[in-house]
Amino acid sequence: MSEIWLRSEGGDAVLNLHIQPGAKKTAVAGLHGDALKIRLAAPPVDGKANACLVEFLAERLGVAKSCIELVSGASSRVKRVRIEGVDAGVVRRRLSD
Q: Which of 39, 46, 81, 84 is positioned for an S-S bond with 23, CB 3.0–4.6 A?
């Protein structure tokens, strides 16, 4: 099954995300249009939300933070993130647990 928020590019996975900063806890919240919604416990100031997102994804996906690249949306709620060396199927399973 194909997910509109997730695709493979070479050996990497690219995610379309909708971010909700300032939430009570950091968690995957389901779909938001064509993006996966993630709530972050960090505020949207001084890059704290982006750092929280990278840390959350690294922990959930079992990869180093250096494998996660914010492709677009550094100052937006809509972000594209590349996970280097991880199959899209693995990302789908680990983010839906």
A: 39
Angle at 27 between CA 83 and CA 40, to 5 degrees: 85
- 4-40 pLDDT, tens digit per residue, is 999 999 999 999 999 999 999 999 999 999 999 999 9
pLDDT in tens, 41-89: 999 999 999 999 999 999 999 999 999 999 999 999 999 999 999 999 9
Q: Which fold has domain 6-96?
A: Conserved Hypothetical Protein Mth637; Chain: A; (3.30.1200)
Backbone angles phi, psi at 34, to 5 degrees: -100, 20
Other CB atoms within 10 Å distance of the CB of residue 96: 10
Sequence-separated (6 or more) residues with CB below 8 Å from residue 60: 28, 94, 95
